[in-house]
Amino acid sequence: MGSLEIGSRLDACLAAAVAADPTLSDVAKVIAACATAAIEVSTVIGRGALAGDLAAQGAQNSDGDVQKFLDVLAHERFTEALRGAPVSEVASEESEGVMLLNPGAPLAVAIDPLDGSSNIGVNMAVGSIFGIWPTASTPENPLGSFTGPGTLQRAAGFVTYGPATSLVLTLGHGTQTYTLDRAEGAFRLTHPRMEVVAAAKEYAINASNARHWDTPVKAYIEDCLRGAEGPLDKDFNMRWLGSLVSDAQRVLLRGGVFLYPGDNRKGYAQGRLRLLYEAAPIAFLMEQAGAGAIDGERRILDICASAIHERVPLIFGSADEVACVAKYYGGRNPAAGRSPLFGQRGLMRG
Ligand code: AFP
User: Fold this and answer.
1) Whose CA, among 94, 129, 242, 343, lies 20 to 30 Å from 311?
2) CB count, 10 Å around CB of 251?
3) Is 202-329 in the same CATH topology as 10-191?
4) How far apart are CA 138 and CA 323, in angstroms?
5) 3-state SS, residue 339
6) Domain 202-329 has what CATH class?
7) How far is the CA of 159 from the centre of ligand 1 (A)?
8) Strand 175-181 to strand 165-170: parallel, antiparallel, or no bridges (unpaired)?
9) Which residues in the chain belong to E strands, given as ranges?
10) Ligand 1: which residues within 6 Å by Cβ?
């Protein structure tokens, strides 16, 4: 993104990116549309209970998650904004199939309009995640825009609706963060080049699932808990925010490793997070900031989706720590060692 001044507005930064690489012109328009929708969603979230019951529950989405009022509102705001951009189709967490917007448009968008919705009712951070792909669907292959490897993404970003609203973004030339200037209603560049420290001292995982984890994760976390007395030879801190974007933003800013592995619970063999609109955008942003993102044995960006709501185990963060976790998997299938009795007391205790 060149050597832009801190405080530059997002539109100026996008214009500079297009000037440097004119093939980014349509991508920049899509990002601007996402930013517009994000500001609208941020305004609603910022009103909290004054905006009504944002966590009011409605129908179930295609993946069986109960939709909350804010899930639907965010989905509608982003979809409407993308309808005015060069976007042919959208794969959204809140829509069962691919939505056709502008036939013939050059780009396709995969989006989680509201990530972390279980945090809505308790005033905790939530977010929006998006990946921008070249349109490649055909009548014979209607999912074609979304079935290639994540390396095909032209850009990716997430918005964190926290104490501040921030947009973390990559167009393939590093990862930048913009912070919403509420007085002006515009995002401004605050972190021109995010670089994740290679060594981690913090891990993020939902420890309540420990008895269900794959063997390699169980062994790695047990070694983290052993701290300086164990083979990892250092003490760790733990965080789990229930909001992928919030954990990802912390990792980008101070390092660490995030794990949502597959486990033995029904429906969680491939974890909870979706490849297309959660793992792939986050992986792109992490790699552009010098971090890593794997499923335990494969690079996330090398994996091809075969369905838009397909799940994938997700481990990302400080490069050295992700490499360490990969060793625990030893290149084996993350489900290795999972037996019908796995998780029973004593079965896998070291
Ligand atoms: P929700 O959007 O249903 O709250 O899920 C959030 C999320 O997809 C991701 O943001 C969190 O990291 C993860 O799920 C939390 O999962 P657990 O509730 O199983 O800890």
Assistant:
1) 343
2) 28
3) no
4) 38
5) coil
6) alpha beta
7) 16
8) antiparallel
9) 57-60, 66-68, 87-92, 99-100, 107-115, 126-134, 155-161, 165-170, 175-181, 186-191, 202-204, 237-239, 257-260, 292-294, 314-317
10) 65, 115-118, 206, 242-244, 272-273
Residues 203-253: tens digit of each pLDDT: 999 999 999 998 999 999 999 999 999 999 999 999 999 999 999 999 999
| 247-269 pLDDT, tens digit each | 999 999 999 999 999 999 999 99
Helix then strand then coil, in percent of the chain rounded to 5, is 35, 25, 40
Q: Going by DSSP bridges, is the β-strand pair 99-100/87-92 parallel, antiparallel, or unpaired?
A: antiparallel
Taking the C-alpha atoms of residue 294 and residue 260, their distance in angstroms, rounded to an integer, is 11
Distance 13 CA to ligand 1 centre (A): 32
Secondary structure of residue 71 in the 3-state scheme = helix
The owner of tokens 């030339």 is 173
**How far is Cα 135 from Cα 87, in angstroms, rounded to an integer?**
8
* Local structure of 212: helix, strand or coil: helix
Cα of 116 vs centre of ligand 1, distance in Å, is 5
Superfamily, domain 10-191: Fructose-1,6-Bisphosphatase, subunit A, domain 1 (3.30.540.10)
Distance CA 138, CA 12 (A): 35
Q: Are 246 and 164 in contact (CB under 8 A)?
A: no
CA distance 203 to 213: 15
Give domain limits for the chain: 10-191, 202-329
Q: Given the CA of residue 245, which atom of ligand 1 is nearest to it?
A: 10
Residue 234, CA distances (Å) to 50, 173, 260, 263 in order: 46, 33, 22, 26
CA angle at 264 for the pair 341 and 199, rounded to the nearest 5°: 120
In testing the pocket of ligand 1, which one of 158, 212, 244 has its CB within 8 Å of the most ligand atoms? 244
What is the pLDDT at residue 332? 53
The residue to mutate among 117, 126, 243, 314, having the most atoms of ligand 1 within 8 angstroms of its beta carbon, is 243
Written as six digits, the tokens of 76 are 């509608």
pLDDT tens for each residue of 167-179: 999 999 999 999 9
